[in-house]
Amino acid sequence: MRADLRGLLAAIWAGAVTASGAAQADSACIPDGQRYCSAIPIGDGRILTCLQSRWKDLSSSCQQEIQNIQNRSREINAACANDVWQYCRDVAPGAGRIRVCLWSRWNDLSSTCRDKAAEVAEKTEALQQQCAADMERVCPGMKPGGGLIYMCLKAQESRISSGCRSALR
Question: Would you say the pTM of this structure is higher than 0.70?
Fold first, then answer.
């Protein structure tokens, strides 16, 4: 699940590379990423690692954004940790493989994990319905998984429709 967090922050950075100046300000970590990590290649959590290595130098808003993402990740981890260990421990993280594994064992999952997974699925469905056109326009070619599209849209929030902005909240 930590790989998903790394992917989310990579998506923030990827959005910054292609976004207009106004859109770049939508994510609190974009200016810090550009300032401290511009020479770091995107992928495999390298941008997150770079930002974390400069933690004391980051803006408080970027620190808060990273902490919020980590808190959401911890919620999902806490709800499903035992299920991941029991059913998916041999599955390599990344590219949504753990999520697919958990979904394949849906009837065996704890109610806590199922509830959290259903909540995430509901939010994902609303996001897809409200943001389909925005996804194609501001995140072209980005593949779903690990919250990458969510973070791409969030990083470019000023460029998306009001309906999509509501779904992001």
Answer: no
